[in-house]
Amino acid sequence: MQRSAEFTVHVTRRPGALVVAPQGEIDVATVERVGAACAAHERGTLVLDLREVGFLDSSGLRLVLECQRRADECGHRFVVVRGPASVQRLFELVGLGHRLTLVDEPAEALGDADVAP
Amino acid sequence: MPTWRPEDGGRRRVVGLALAAAICAALAYVDARLPSDDSIIATVVLAPLVCALLGTARDVAAVGVVATALALLSGVWDDSFERAAYYLRAGVVGVGSLVAYLAAALRETVVRDRARFAVLSGVAGVTDGSRTLDETAARLHDLIVPTIADASVLDVVRRGEVRRLAARVRDSPDLEERLSARTPSLPDVPGSSGAVASGDVHVVGSVDDAFVQRIAHDAEDLALLRELQMRSLVVVPLVARGRTLGALALATTAQSRRSFADDDVDFVKVLSGRVALALDNAGLFSELETIEAQLSAALDGLAEAVTIQHTEGALVYANDAAARMLGFASAQELLSTPVQRVIAGFESFHEDGTPLRVEDLPGRRLLAGQDAPPLIVRAVNRTTGDERWRVTKSTPVRDRDGRVQLVVNVIDDITDVKRAELAQRLLARAGAALSASLDDKRMLQDVAQLAVPELADWCTIGLPDGRGLIRTVAVAHVDPGRVAFARRVAETYPTREDDPTGVARVLREGASQVVNDISDAMIDAAARDPAHAAMLKEIGMRAALAVPMVAGGRVIGTLSLVQAESGRTFAPADVELAEELARRAGTAVENARLYVERSRIARTLQQGLLPEALPDMPGWSAQTLYRPAGSENWVGGDFYDVVAVPGGWLLIVGDVAGHGAEAAALTALARHTLRSVARLLPDPLEAVATLNAELAARDVLSLVTVAAALLSERDGRAVAEVVCAGHPRPLLRHAAGIRPVGRFGPILGAYADERWDRETVALAPGDALVLYTDGVLDTVGEARERFGEARLRAALDGATDPDDAIARIDAALQRFEVGEQADDTAVLAVQRIGVPDAAHAAIGAAGGAAR
Question: In the A/B pair of chains, how many CB contacts fall below 8 A?
Answer without folding.
Answer: 63
